[in-house]
């Protein structure tokens, strides 16, 4: 929401508009000039009966990857879905489809980051042949196809493998969801992959489906 808009006023943004707004917020975060928009009481009250997020961010659960902070946005701005290693399951796909079909969100971002623990665990399991216990194994099994693809492409370091996993995740979302792929084909929504550098605080697009 811009300063001259009433709280809760619906906006119609293109995928390009949405990505530009997030890039601008991330630039402020990197520069240390964050504005912390839409975080006051009037904004909170305006959202009681409705929400109108302009993007959905499907990111890793890592505590260093708080989406609203690194993109300098506030309440009601982004619809956030998080799992360790941004692994996809039915609940994730349902949440993403909800954001597109019912909230008309024009942009889906898959957000990964360097030094990802879940991707590291998948790489170690692939290299040693030893799987972790419990439901951590499920995470590793869902990330392993990206690790295999990375190895096939001659990629063996963690941060380059994260990029590969982000790219694979964006592709799987479009392949798995007919609703989302149709929205992409129609130009209503774009799905992009973004990696975040922990030290610099910078988010960079590494893949994409749809017009930006």
Automatic annotation (TrEMBL):
Its EC number is 4.2.1.1. It is an enzyme of class 4 (lyase). It holds the Pfam family Pro_CA. It catalyses: hydrogencarbonate + H(+) = CO2 + H2O. Keywords: Lyase, Zinc. It comes from the Bacteria. CDD domains: beta_CA_cladeC. InterPro entries: Carbonic_anhydrase, Carbonic_anhydrase_CS, Carbonic_anhydrase_sf. The keyword Oxidoreductase does not apply. PANTHER family: CARBONIC ANHYDRASE, CARBONIC ANHYDRASE 2. Catalyzes the reversible hydration of carbon dioxide to form bicarbonate. Belongs to the beta-class carbonic anhydrase family. This is carbonic anhydrase. It comes from Arthrobacter halodurans.
């Amino acid at each position: 929401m811009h300063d001259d808009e009433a709280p809760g006023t619906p906006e119609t943004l293109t995928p390009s508009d949405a990505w530009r707004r997030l890039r601008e917020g991330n630039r402020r975060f990197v520069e240390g000039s964050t504005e912390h928009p839409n975080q006051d009481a009037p904004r909170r009250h305006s959202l009681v009966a409705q929400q109108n997020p302009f993007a959905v961010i499907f990111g890793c659960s890592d505590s260093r990857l708080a989406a609203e902070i690194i993109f300098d946005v506030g309440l009601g701005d982004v619809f956030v879905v998080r799992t360790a290693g941004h692994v996809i399951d039915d609940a994730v796909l349902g949440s993403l489809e909800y954001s597109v079909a019912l909230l008309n969100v024009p942009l889906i971002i898959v957000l990964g980051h360097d030094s990802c623990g879940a991707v590291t665990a998948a790489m170690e399991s692939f290299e040693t042949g030893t799987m972790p216990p419990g439901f951590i194994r499920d995470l590793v099994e869902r990330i392993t196809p990206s690790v295999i693809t990375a190895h096939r492409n001659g990629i063996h370091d963690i941060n380059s493998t994260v990029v590969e996993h982000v790219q694979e995740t964006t592709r799987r979302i479009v392949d798995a969801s007919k609703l989302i792929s149709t929205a992409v084909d129609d130009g209503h929504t774009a799905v992009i992959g973004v990696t975040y550098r922990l030290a610099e605080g910078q988010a960079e697009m590494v893949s994409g489906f749809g017009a930006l």
